[in-house]
Amino acid sequence: MATERPVIERARRFTASSILAAVLFILLGLIAIIEPATAVVKIAMVLGWLLIFGGIAHFIATFRSGGAKRVVFQLLSAIAFVLAGLYLVTHQMLAIGTLTAVLAVVIFVAGVFDIISYFRLKREPPSGWMLLNGIVALVLGVLIWLQWPSSSAHAIGTLLGVNLLMTGITRLMFGMAGRRLIKHATA
Fold first, then answer.
1. Mean pLDDT computed over every residue of the chain
2. In this structure, is residue 124 part of a structural domain?
3. Is the preceding peptide bond at 149 cis, omega within 30 degrees of 0?
């Protein structure tokens, strides 16, 4: 009984963080659906700045590296990161076309993994949501790819919003199922 309590508390914290993440996914999805063009431009900006900061980190790591070969590769990595980041920040509309193609692949692959997860968890009550999320992600990934590059600005934001919304709902269902299991286990 004494070892059961820490497990229950960890499960409660885990489900609480899962539900919080689900709500965040849902909110981000709704924002992206309401303002799709703005959402995709913001994504390009954030990614650009992350690459720039990553390049700076590689540059700093260059001086901590041992050996000439390692220094050269760190320096080349730093330059590549910074140049890619600057490209995304300064050429947002061109970068959005590239991001659209990458996002289509990422959403499609996420859908495949959700469907695989469904088959691993199909005995769990909310696993149907995982299957639905996987199917929606597959369809969205294909739709984005088929409409690329013309879909780059508006469609990508909307489809990304739908994907985030479905992911949030799926995670919320799993979190709520976890809460019911905890309640049943402690009753």
1. 82
2. yes
3. yes
